Amino acid sequence: MTTIKSPELTQLKENEEVNAEVTWEDQQNINSFSKLVSKYNDIEEQYEHKKQEKEYIDDLALELELVDEDELVRYKIGDAFILLPLSEVQSRLEQEASQLTEEVEQLRNQLDSMNDKMQQLKTVLYGKFGTAINLEKD
């Protein structure tokens, strides 16, 4: 015996899921999730930018190892370049690298924390609404 699925039955099941009652608490959870996603995307962008900046500084530090000790090196401060001794440039780069490492770590921790909160909200919302709600990135 062959079972044939009718489009009306499939449509009915989808409509049943959509008709789940949205309470005030559910709406607050949806709003919280939306805000978290927006903030997560902003922080993720900052994280990638800081991580790339750190890589550039690390590459620059490696390149400076090839420079003679007696040479003056151009160092950018704001919009201007000044000539500094190699040792001072290297120490400034180390400070910048350590500061960027801390910032990258803080941003990573924020992302992890936000991801945990989003997972909790997903569990609650998918538990109630099933496939009637889409909380995944495209």
Automatic annotation (TrEMBL):
The keyword Cell membrane does not apply. One of its GO terms (biological process) is protein folding. Gene3D superfamilies: 1.10.287.370. GO terms for cellular component: cytoplasm; prefoldin complex. The keyword Secreted does not apply. It comes from the Eukaryota. InterPro entries: PFD_beta-like (IPR002777), PFDN4 (IPR016661), Prefoldin (IPR009053). Residues 86-124 form a coiled coil. GO terms for molecular function: unfolded protein binding. It holds the Pfam family Prefoldin_2. Keywords: Chaperone, Coiled coil. Heterohexamer of two PFD-alpha type and four PFD-beta type subunits. Belongs to the prefoldin subunit beta family. Binds specifically to cytosolic chaperonin (c-CPN) and transfers target proteins to it. Binds to nascent polypeptide chain and promotes folding in an environment in which there are many competing pathways for nonnative proteins. This is Prefoldin subunit 4. It comes from Paraglomus brasilianum.
